[in-house]
Amino acid sequence: MQELNKTLYVVIPCYNEEEVLEETTKRLKEKMGKLIKDKKISNKSKVMYVNDGSKDNTWELIKKINKSEKLFTGITLSRNRGHQNALLAGLMTAKTYADVVISMDADLQDDINAIDEMIDKYNTGCDIVYGVRSSRKKDTWFKKTTAQGFYKFMKFMGVDVVYNHADYRLTSKRVLEEFSNFKEVNLFLRGMFPLVGYSSDVVYYERKERFAGESKYPLKKMLNFAWDGITSFSVRPIRMVLNVGIIIFAVSLLVLLYCLIVKLLGKTVEGWTFVVGSIWLVSGVQMLSIGIIGEYIGKIYSETKARPRFIISENLEEQNAKR
Ligand code: UDP
Ligand code: MG
Questions:
Q1: Alpha carbon nearest to ligand 1 atom 1, residue
Q2: What is the pLDDT of residues 118-139, one digit of tens each?
Q3: Which of 20, 99, 145, 298 could lock 6 by a disulfide, CB 3.0 to 4.6 Å apart?
Q4: What is the distance between the alpha carbons of residues 211 and 17, in angstroms, rounded to a whole number?
Q5: CA distance 280 to 269
Q6: Ligand 1 atom 19, closest CA
Q7: Where are the alpha helices (DSSP H) in 95-158?
Q8: 284 CB under 6 A from ligand 1?
Q9: Ligand 1 center–CA 59 separation, angstroms
């Protein structure tokens, strides 16, 4: 069992969030205050806002909040780099000060009451706790359908994601330390954390409405994000090309046979057999070749990402030396 009373940092990326920050600050102050009072977390715990190059007064607001409340701190990025990069910046900064970090969105659509349960799970030895949406009653029909389609499509494309989990999650310091060895540039954090391993659990909560401001994830950004997730995590699209190549090549052999039979029966015009046969055979060979080349590109791709090949969580030799 891990020791109680650890330092918690809550990391929140903010892009043009001046409309929500005050309310968010108020609610989190209450929540964190209670957790500190109940000795669930240490009194060095903080909320860290990450200003993702906002064009409005978000950063001025964060600085103002930081002046009046020592519970709140912040960092700002030199320009807008997108949610995932902002979140990573926050996590990597917070890990130097904290024992455990929770990431969430500025609009508090993810229920902050789930924090208690996350901390409890952490205290019983979980290194990662995923927040999972139990229902989306408050999301619009469109958001709900596209978001759920997203998870299903990801699964189909061979990406291992926790269903209905976004970026509301608790991670321990050692997970973040190991995570810093993932050097890839195209980030899809919710797919990367499961790769770190260690024991994990989920906490269910109900997703709420955005109480102010509007979504910073329009459909176009969401599609880009899904595409990033698939292409960063899976070579299945390449495999599909290869499979189609194999099928077309096989079919082309049958078509050739058919052409020959028709020719032998004398039911064709001059040149037909040659033209049709060539089209099928050449296309089949081409598709197959692209698939094979793709397989190698896929290998190069995963090599260049240079993800850690393994992470050792316990070494008895080290423990023996301490005895
Ligand atoms: N966000 C960010 N940079 C961006 C876009 C969004 O840091 O370029 C932050 C935003 O401030 C919020 C979180 O990402 O804290 C999630 O955005 P939003 O709530 O708009 O997404 P939705 O809940 O609609 O999916
Ligand atoms: Mg939101």
A1: 83
A2: 999 999 999 999 999 887 777 7
A3: 99
A4: 11
A5: 18
A6: 215
A7: 114-123, 141-156
A8: no
A9: 15
Contact 94, 157 (CB under 8 A): no
Q: Ligand 1: which of 217, 219, 225, 228 to mutate, judged by most atoms within 8 Å of the beta carbon?
A: 217
**Tokens linked to 242:** 């290869």
Q: Which of 78, 83, 309 is nearest to 187 (CA)?
A: 83
Hey, how many other C-beta atoms are within 10 angstroms of the C-beta on 92?
A: 15
Residues forming a β-bridge with 305: none
- What are the b/e assignments for 233-266, b being 16+ CB within 10 Å? bbbeebeebbeebeebbeebeebbeebeeeeeee
Ligand 1, residue 12: give the atom nearest the CA: 15
Residue 101 amino acid letter: V
Distance 303 CA to ligand 2 centre (A): 34
Mutate which of 15, 169, 205 for ligand 1 pocket (most atoms within 8 A of beta carbon): 15
List C-alpha distances in Å: 218 to 147, 158, 201, 224.
12, 25, 30, 10
Give ion ligand 2 contacts, CB < 5 A.
Answer: 105, 107, 109
Q: Hey, which of 57, 105, 169, 205 would you mutate to test ligand 1's pocket, going by the most ligand atoms within 8 Å of its Cβ?
A: 105
Smallest-distance ligand from the CA of 13: 1
The string of DSSP letters for 180-230 reads TT---SS--HHHHHHHH-S-EEEEEEEB----SS--S--HHHHHHHHHHHH
Q: Quick one: tokens of 96?
A: 């130097």
DSSP state of 308: -
Asked if residue 83 has its Cβ within 6 Å of ligand 1, the reply is: yes
pTM for the whole structure? 0.83
Look-up of token digits 């200003």: 51
Residue 67 burial by CB count (10 A; 0-12/13-18/19+): exposed, middle or buried? exposed
